[in-house]
Amino acid sequence: MNSIETKDVHLHYGDFHALKGITMAMKKNQVTAFIGPSGCGKSTYLRCFNRMNDLIDNVKITGEILIDEVDIYAKNIRVDDLRKHVGMVFQKPNPFPKSIFENVAYGLRVDGISDKAFIEERVERSLRHAALWDEVKDKLKKSAFELSGGQQQRLCIARTLAIEPSVVLMDEPASALDPISTAKIEELIHELKKDYTIVIVTHNMQQAGRVSDSTAFFYLGELIEYGKTKTIFTSPKDERTQNYITGRFG
Ligand SMILES: Nc1ncnc2c1ncn2[C@@H]1O[C@H](COP(=O)(O)OP(=O)(O)OP(=O)(O)O)[C@@H](O)[C@H]1O
């Protein structure tokens, strides 16, 4: 079953044509990786899925994007509801200046939930799910800034999971982390796909190879090739994919 489907998506930043007719479908409970040289449109495309590009002036998007069969650019869509359904984790961990507990509880409180037991249960579950609970359970009231970078990133993942999204978008989630924290995030991604559909932008091809089921290669705003990760990395059909994965450019 497809979780995300896009048809002929074009995006312009003013006069600049950043996405050129992207049609692809991403399966539910799978990890899809976006790879390609800097500036090819990976993040732009990812940001279409939770309408983050709406925040940028002068952006024009055409085509169709369906998430769990709903047209997310339809007039009746409320963007804050969409962002609950489609969570996002950024390159740099961005915890709020609050306690560890309150970072995870934040989305629930914004949603108007005040039941203390419910919030406590959901915070614990989300921290466990993000493989952070054991490291923080005795210091939930401490500031999130006291955590290491890798822990902060897992906290941000827990914060995203707390509002029970269906899709989790990750824009280079490990690029600011050390190798041990990166390995933890990769392990976590593997676990999370049981419950979520994950789309990850990465510059690290080994990482794409390790974590993803499918890989899409982008070049100059176009989707060049998309398929099973193994196939893309071992027998790509397009010469540009071949050149990229063998390090000849990018
Ligand atoms: N807010 C913006 N306004 C104008 N142009 C933009 C904006 N954001 C991105 N672009 C341009 O769109 C193109 C695609 O950028 P995008 O960030 O999606 O690429 P990317 O493949 O994710 O790159 P990287 O791997 O370096 O993050 C680039 O040429 C970039 O300069």
Automatic annotation (TrEMBL):
Domain annotation ABC transporter: ranges: 4-245
Keyword annotations from UniProtKB, A to Z: ATP-binding, Nucleotide-binding, Phosphate transport, Transport
Nucleotide-binding listed as a keyword: yes
One term of GO molecular function: ATP binding
Sections of the chain in a coiled coil: none
CDD domains in the cross-refs: ABC_PstB_phosphate_transporter
InterPro entries per record: AAA+_ATPase, ABC_transporter-like_ATP-bd, ABC_transporter-like_CS, P-loop_NTPase, PstB-like
Keyword set includes Nucleotide-binding: yes
NCBIfam families tied to this protein: 3a0107s01c2
Name this protein carries in UniProt: Phosphate ABC transporter ATP-binding protein PstB
Species this protein is from: Nibribacter koreensis
Gene name tied to this protein: pstB
